[in-house]
Every structure is written in C-alpha cells, then in structure tokens.
Amino acid sequence: MTTPLIPAPARSGRGSIRMHLDRGEHPATRVPLLGSDLDNPSAVCGGCANKVFKQLHDGRERLKCGLLPRGSRGLRGPDLRDSMPACVKYAAAPSALRNA
Per its UniProt entry, which superkingdom is the organism in (predicted)? Predict the structure, then answer.
C-alpha cells in the first residue's frame, strides 16, 4: 500500500520587494513609504520625477529609481513598477511626455 501525497497548503511567496513594502519601506530607496495620498493619486513610482528608464540590449526598458547611484555593475537597484507606492522622497514629475 502506498502513502498518498498530502499537498502543502497553498500560500503566496513573499519576495524581497514585497517584504520591504510590508515593512512600510520603499524597496529601492529603503526610506518610508509616502502612504496613501488621496489628494495626489499619482504618488507612485511611475509619476515620480526621479524615475529613470534603463534601456536593455534587446530594446526593452526597466523602470529604476534615479535617487540611487549606479553600482559597480551599472545597476540602480530593483526593477520598479509604475504602480509601486512612492517613498517620502517623491517629487511629482512634470507633465511633459517622455521621449520614446
């Protein structure tokens, strides 16, 4: 007789970025999150003046934080998402369109 396999209960993983957000700190700058600001709904990384786009060799872009210095490998911390909550160093981006 064989023993049936009992699957482990499903649970979502907690990656390092999510763990920083759970602690209330921004994963790139490691400073506190700005918090929900109903008067400024664009207070997310995608609406910040400090965002930079890293161009990959295949033409894709990655959103990075411009407040971080480039490391020895030319990186600026983790890839961010437009919708990621902003940190307290948030500065509203001008409404000018970005060059594509």
Answer: Bacteria
